[in-house]
Design goal:
With 112 residues, the protein is an all-alpha fold. The chain is 78% helix and 0% strand.
Length: 112
């Protein structure tokens, strides 16, 4: 058991992350000399699988009830993101062109 909340909040090992997410109450960083807790690993796998099934059920229900509007929203978001990317590329090209012109001007000035 890990009673050290500071450690558990800072640690990113599997057990501490599971404890932070509320899947394992107070369990973190088992000492190396204890070895693996096979029963706990199976229990964790069961809970993860159970949650995965719940998520899949919700996905199906959400897709049935909100799928069309979510598809439209995804299309709008994608369009906006692509426009941002294209705008960023154009801006980067302009900056590069300006930089090249400035460097050329600087080189010409220094040669004289």
């Amino acid at each position: 058991m890990c009673d050290d909340r500071v450690h558990r909040d800072e640690c990113d090992c599997y057990d501490c992350v599971e404890a932070k997410m509320g899947r394992r109450a107070g369990v973190c960083c088992p000492p190396a000399e204890q070895g693996f807790d096979v029963a706990a690993m199976w229990k964790d796998a069961f809970h993860q699988a159970y949650r995965d099934v719940q998520v899949e059920i919700f996905k199906a229900k959400i897709k049935t009830s909100m799928g069309k509007s979510m598809d439209k929203a995804a299309g709008l978001v994608l369009s906006a993101m692509l426009e941002d990317i294209q705008h960023g590329q154009k801006k980067a090209q302009k900056v590069n062109a300006s930089r090249e012109k400035f460097e050329k001007l600087l080189q010409e000035t220094l040669k004289v």
